[in-house]
């Protein structure tokens, strides 16, 4: 349903086709669900048609569910049909737009050909263009019918409520059609006027043709001389032929052709056309002159700007001071937007020059030479600016490198002085700790300095490759850095070596004191004699005791490290302090072994306590289960019906199965109790009593259940016999009236009665076995 309610109807023809294929698959899925809906309805009718008795749900609810399902399916089918209709409409729309686009492209191409200002410069050229025009007119006539059909399709789409995007293409197509025949109509007289250009019809026709070529199609010519220079320079056409006197007269005037119009009227019309063309020539000449003047002015301005900046760049020397370099860099930053603006102006001059080249102006060669000179000078200036900028960047890189080297050397001198200042610290533990902290922080600073050195080395190598003439200066800076770095590392290493022995001694004394204090606390905690009173308390104490073992293992490494450090410190020493350290080491070994023995003893005690309380918990659970089983056996009665007797037998069989399953728990409990008895302990007597009680009760329950099962099965057989006898009695009472029927005096229906009697005798014979089986069981 979500897919069918989608508002996506495609954005082009191929996408609509894809959506239609996807919708066909969806329609197949919807159609495939119809049989399932019908089967659900049939199943519901079967449930509704059944007689009285148990029903899973009310009939009204079932009918409502079936009706809702069918309604949903009908809605889904309607949505599918509606989306199919919309997709088809969308495809018709995009197919129309596709065809309209192709028609418009063809018409634009034909319109471009019809608006061409070229009308032929001789008779063969004019005839060729006339034949081309006739071919275009023929093509227009041939495409008129399909185009009208396309327009009708567009109007139908608009009438049906096509999307807003269709109105533009549909309404634009007729305008294009109307414009194209107009173009052909306007081109036809122009061709006719251009035809006699080179033929000798007489002075009026020849001069008209010459003026027509001079005042050819000039877009924007209506603006007049007041138009801007840019607009005037954009006009592609202009006077192409000089206006001179009348051409030489022909050798003889031709006579009028048969059926031709009045010569006087033709001459009058020609004169009026000549006067209008003559009046338009000054405006066109002024516009072309204005465009040429604007292009030259713009080229001169660009050349002047380039000359000024080029002179500045040529006279500029790269300074040595960093302040002067920054000033020059700022000047280059302001020069970049000026270069971008000038590039646009140069490109504009180039465009105007190209337009003048196609206009036939007599000054077009001069404009082209000016443009080429400006372009070459502009390219040279750009290359010069780029070279100067690269030189400035290289000088800045050298100055920055020297500055960073100087700052790094100062940084290393400060760290060397700080390391030397640590010699004033004391030899006690506090002084050694403070010194260790300073040296540790100094190590991080040394790592940072080393990283900075790597960066400066890489930068120096790069600068040597880029500026080989400055290589000695760069190597000198790097050598000073390396010397300061070696001095700093030697100072740091000497301080670490001189204070290492004192640090190890103070660290050993601190670790030894902490380890002895921990041993005293842990031995007191592990030597407790408390006996847990509950399972939770026993488990908690055991977990705590196990965590104590983990702690002991963790401190094992500290103990071994302290003994090794002590042996190293006292090796070969005979002074009083060394002898005192040896005695403390011996006491440490004794305390460590005592801790292990105390922990193992406490662990055995807690493990026995946990096992005993777990046994008590399981015993209570088993005794509770046995009590429930005894209660079930004591309250089991003999049912008076066959279903009740059968259900009682099934329940007791399930009870025996559960009893067999529970026997595993009883055996596990007794095994645990015997294991506890083997281990001994203060609770041995209670464990023995519990084991004996559980075993005896379980055995008694099993025997009682077996006996009760036999009695229930006998009762089941009895109830089945009584039910069968009752059913047979009811059947006999039902058939006795049929056997006693003696209404056979008439012979009219005697055959039918005889057939009924035979059927009754066959039924008696079939049920004879029922009676015999009942007698046998009884």
UniProtKB/TrEMBL annotation:
Q: Which InterPro entries does the entry mention?
A: Spectrin/alpha-actinin, Spectrin_repeat
Extent of Pro residues compositional bias: 244-261
The UniProt GO MF terms for this protein read: actin binding
Q: Where is this region: Disordered?
A: 161-268
> Coiled-coil region(s) at which residues?
439-466
Q: Give UniProt keywords alphabetically.
A: Actin-binding, Coiled coil, Repeat
Q: Quick check: keyword Repeat in the entry?
A: yes
What's a Pfam family this protein contains? Spectrin
Question: What Gene3D superfamilies does the record tag this protein with?
Answer: 1.20.58.60
| Protein name (Swiss-Prot/TrEMBL) | SPTB2 protein
The species is: Irena cyanogastra (Philippine fairy-bluebird)
